[in-house]
Amino acid sequence: xxxxxxxxxxxxxxxxxxxxxxxxxxxxxxxxxxxxxxxxxxxxxxxxxxxxxxxxxxxxxxxxxxxxxxxxxxxxxxxxxxxxxxxxxxxxxxxxxxxxxxxxxxxxxxxxxxxxxxxxxxxxxxxxxxxxxxxxxxxxxxxxxxxxxxxxxxxxxxxxxxxxxxxxxxxxxxxxxxxxxxxxxxxxxxxxxxxxxxxxxxxxxxxxxxxxxxxxxxxxxxxxxxxxxxxxxxxxxxx
Length: 239
Fold this sequence. Notes:
Elements: E1 3-6, E2 27-28, E3 31-32, H1 33-43, E4 48-53, H2 57-64, E5 73-78, H3 85-97, E6 106-110, E7 113-115, H4 122-126, E8 134-139, E9 151-153, E10 156-158, E11 168-175, H5 192-200, E12 204-208, E13 213-215, H6 219-231
Parallel strand pairs: 1-4, 1-6, 4-5, 8-12
Antiparallel strand pairs: 2-3, 6-11, 7-13, 8-11, 9-10
């Protein structure tokens, strides 16, 4: 299975930190945020990684290269200035994520989140995509997003705007290429409309991850996570 790390965003809320450094290269616990993802993927036996880039993308490529020093193989999916949004970025990278056109699931991780969800579970979750197009990792709502995104009913994810008890999308999910089949490569496209349509067709499964998750969206959250990981560094073990 391939993994796709979304790393093309401008990081407006992180300015001025992101004026000269792409957000995924900001350091927490002594290493760039994106390296935490790469190391966890390597430890989980998922070494085939695609990363998109736009804002200061050359610095990402310079820092990470082909992934050899991390024990992975990185392929790069460049995007134009301004990037292509989440779904547009995935559509742009599909030739790398599904080169043989087999519609095999792939893992997607937002480059600006920190989470202790076990990525080694990705293979098991992919097996759940027999009659569905996506499997989402949801988390309890953080203080900055109290209304949540979607409702979890058993293993089904529902789009119910008026429902109580909604959860927040963690920025981690498994997807089949067919979910993006209607998109034109090179054109910006948001992920949420595709997911909502699939939910209405009962094509999205999910789970709640109740443990550590952080949307590293502001300098304050970045600083707090840096202190946490510096004082209590997690141990990444191979599966």
